[in-house]
TrEMBL record:
<dbReference type="InterPro" id="IPR004488">
    <property type="entry name" value="Mg/Co-transport_prot_CorA"/>
</dbReference>
<dbReference type="Pfam" id="PF01544">
    <property type="entry name" value="CorA"/>
</dbReference>
<feature type="transmembrane region" description="Helical">
    <location>
        <begin position="335"/>
        <end position="355"/>
    </location>
</feature>
<dbReference type="InterPro" id="IPR002523">
    <property type="entry name" value="MgTranspt_CorA/ZnTranspt_ZntB"/>
</dbReference>
<feature type="region of interest" description="Disordered">
    <location>
        <begin position="1"/>
        <end position="27"/>
    </location>
</feature>
<comment type="similarity">
    <text>Belongs to the CorA metal ion transporter (MIT) (TC 1.A.35) family.</text>
</comment>
<keyword id="KW-0812">Transmembrane</keyword>
<keyword id="KW-0406">Ion transport</keyword>
<dbReference type="GO" id="GO:0000287">
    <property type="term" value="F:magnesium ion binding"/>
</dbReference>
<dbReference type="InterPro" id="IPR045863">
    <property type="entry name" value="CorA_TM1_TM2"/>
</dbReference>
<keyword id="KW-0472">Membrane</keyword>
<dbReference type="InterPro" id="IPR045861">
    <property type="entry name" value="CorA_cytoplasmic_dom"/>
</dbReference>
<dbReference type="GO" id="GO:0050897">
    <property type="term" value="F:cobalt ion binding"/>
</dbReference>
<keyword id="KW-0460">Magnesium</keyword>
<keyword id="KW-1133">Transmembrane helix</keyword>
<keyword id="KW-0813">Transport</keyword>
<feature type="transmembrane region" description="Helical">
    <location>
        <begin position="304"/>
        <end position="323"/>
    </location>
</feature>
Amino acid sequence: MPSLPNLGLRNRVNRGDRGSRSAPSSGVRSASVVDCAVYVEGKRLPGEWSHEEAMAEVRSRRGGFVWIGLHEPDQERINGIAETFGLHELAVEDAVHAHQRPKLEHYDDTLFMVLKTVRYVPDRARATNSEIVSSGELMIFLGRDFVITVRHGNQAALTRVRAELERSPEQLALGPSAVLHGISDHVVDSYLEVTESIQDDIDSIETEVFAPRTSIDAEQIYLMKREVMQLRRAVMPLSQPLQRLAGDHTPHVADQVRSYFRDVEDHLATVSERVASFDELLTTLVDATLAKITLQQNTDMRKISAWVAIISTPTMIAGVYGMNFDRMPETEWAFGYPVTLLVMMVCCVMLFKIFRRNNWL
């Protein structure tokens, strides 16, 4: 993730309030609340905070911002946070129920962004449904002095993003939009990692398809194509929200951060190109596999037809003598039986050599 420079736009803090304010209370945190922190001048204030205490602290200082991380919260938990921060009810409903496409919406004085999170599932860890790309969702509420993240699924955890940002106070000093950039960059980087792993899988399939005398299951390619389509639904709609964040008219986005959203957009364009190429390549591999399967079936049918022709010759001769007519050729001859067997054998050998010479066997 590129480093954001400190351009002197840190929020000013009332030094007197810092010394006189009491420490936050350490209440029992809900299981859905991953973390709740207050950042002033890019540095995290010590202690544990409830969302009411954190918001009151920031508003009293008139500087800094709150970052709350939630994981699959229930309606009751998020309603209390929504009331404190003034979140729009439609955005709150989307955050609780998930199943949204990537988007960026403006509600009153708050931005609401939805990202699709993905994670590559290795062969040894794949479930019975053979899922290659595991997906989830990440919702972000962005205000003037707060960031609220709501995560669904276990993909793209934000613990590492928070730790990296806290090691760079100059980035956090730029405000909540720096957090939004860090999260977006982290999610898009995960897209790049997934596409690299998928590329390795597709290369293996391609080698197997075009290798001589190998059999490939077309279902495996269809499964890979399904997963690529799922990744495409996560990647393609995100381009427009990133363009808006890099523009000049999106509220709560610091000017210093806009150019870094353009960098994230460039990375997303790389991912989009890879996904599009995957789709085309898999379509080609499906056609090649079907052609290979058809050729194999034709070869098998030729072998079956050749063996049927070989077996039908002695069957025909035995069938003629099995009709038990009184006047059959050579029925009274002492050598009739062995000669008939010899004729059957000679016919079968001749047919076998003919079919072998024509590559039917």
